[in-house]
Automatic annotation (TrEMBL):
NCBIfam families: orc1/cdc6 family replication initiation protein, PRK00411.1-2. Gene3D superfamilies: 1.10.8.60, P-loop containing nucleotide triphosphate hydrolases. GO terms for biological process: DNA replication. Involved in regulation of DNA replication. It comes from the Archaea. This is ORC1-type DNA replication protein. GO terms for molecular function: ATP binding; ATP hydrolysis activity. ATP binds at T62, G63, K64, T65, T66, Y206, R218. Residues 299-373 form the Cdc6 C-terminal domain. Belongs to the CDC6/cdc18 family. Transmembrane segments: none annotated. Keywords: ATP-binding, DNA replication, Nucleotide-binding. Pfam families: AAA_22, Cdc6_lid.
Length: 373
């Protein structure tokens, strides 16, 4: 029999990209209310005015990013006077990188990484918006990743005050948050909030019928006919609804199809349906995917220390190990620790009567973290 190890002889996928998390579906249903609220906030920009700022709140996988992408693509097809800028704060976390991304959208290239002051980048953006009367709409997706070291305040402050220095410059911010425990208002200084004053747009979780319809459409586009029965789709829908995150369903479909292919079946059976995917799992992969190589090494050592300690390690004890193994130094140590906390990978609990000392725990199983790393 002819074997083809790298290119499987047969695949059930008509188009595997359809199941990627960042795929923008052709049909985006069930979010009409949110889309019209967001369109309402952006609309003044279409007439050259300052858009309303907005906050999109909803659990992961409730369509916040997709709503922004849908409207941004409509803007791009309609006018050049509005410049939509999408920023994922998991990747762009500093003032320099966020303004670098805005600069790139305007001028088609990033500012040089060395030898250029932030102020110069800022001035060029401000002058461009002011002179060209282009209105910028900046989406800060997963803005919770900026909630450490006061970065969110700093970045919102600089963005929202641009018009003061550059008369005529107009810019609106869309901030998306997927952690429902976070009340953005309490995280932003009142002086910044008084300029921000966002419209609140809530994205509720999808119900059973909605999830089934969304997944079934994906299956019709992404798999060959007959590859997945209604019963198997019901099973996957049920797991997705229980997990409360559409990304779980998309990942289960991908893995189940791969299992069926491995068993050389032409149809996914109930036994192929992967049971190991959970919303927590996806959150962990997502969070770790947003770490730099140095931060990953830091987390790996931290996880090993947690695994090998009888009690939860303190920040002091952990610092000793990390400094010895990775020459972390105190400033980087606390920066990385705070970042891992903001990404909800670890918890830092203050110890009573011990000043700045914190007790460190992982929010996931140690082995799970090490496996994903
Ligand atoms: N109404 C919908 N119709 C079709 N697909 C959808 C719908 N809502 C969400 N999806 C799909 O679910 C996945 C997750 O959606 P999206 O990234 O927009 O969620 P999110 O709320 O931004 O999540 P996060 O908070 O993690 O960023 C994407 O693949 C998206 O295409």
């Amino acid at each position: 029999m002819k074997r083809n190890l790298l290119m499987g002889d047969q695949t059930l996928f008509r188009d595997p990209d359809i199941f990627e998390i960042d795929h923008v579906p052709e049909q985006f249903n069930f979010r009409d209310t949110q889309l019209s609220e967001l369109a309402y906030a952006i609309r003044p920009a279409m007439a050259g005015g300052r858009p309303f700022n907005s906050v999109l709140r909803g659990l992961p996988g409730t369509g916040k990013t997709t709503s922004v992408r849908v409207l941004f693509s409509e803007i791009e097809q309609t006018t050049k006077r509005v410049l939509p800028v999408y920023i994922n704060c998991k990747n762009d976390r500093t003032r320099v990188s966020i303004f670098g991304s805005i600069f790139n959208r305007i001028f088609g290239h990033y500012p040089p990484t060395t030898g250029i002051a932030f102020r110069k980048v800022y001035n060029e953006i401000g002058n461009y918006l002011s002179d060209s009367r282009t209105v910028a709409v900046v989406c800060l997706d997963d803005v919770n990743y900026l909630m450490y070291e006061n970065r969110l305040n700093d970045i919102l402050y600089v963005l929202l005050r641009l018009y003061e220095e550059f008369p005529g410059a107009r810019l609106g911010v869309i901030a998306a948050v997927s952690n429902m425990e976070i009340d953005l208002m309490t995280k932003v200084d009142s002086a910044v909030w008084s300029v921000f004053r966002p419209v609140d747009i809530y994205f509720p979780a999808y119900g059973y019928e909605e999830v089934r319809e969304i997944l079934s459409r994906r299956v019709r586009c992404g798999l060959y006919p007959g590859a997945m029965s209604g019963e198997v789709l019901d099973l996957i829908t049920q797991r997705t609804v229980t997990a409360g995150d559409l990304r779980v369903g998309l990942t289960i479909i991908k893995e189940s199809v791969a299992n069926a292919e491995k068993a050389a079946r032409k149809e996914v059976l109930a036994e192929d349906v992967s049971t190991s995917v959970s919303a927590k799992d996806i959150r962990l992969r997502d969070a770790i995917g947003g770490l730099s190589p140095e931060e990953k090494k830091f987390l790996a050592v931290l996880a090993e220390v947690v695994r090998d300690s009888e009690e939860l390690p303190t920040s002091g004890a952990l610092y000793e190990v990390l400094n010895k193994r990775l020459s972390t130094g105190p400033a980087n140590f606390y920066k990385r620790l705070n970042k891992l906390e903001s990404m909800e990978i670890i918890s830092l609990t203050p110890l009573q009567g011990r000043g700045q000392t914190r007790e460190i725990s992982l929010r996931y199983e140690v082995e799970e973290v090490l496996k994903v790393l």
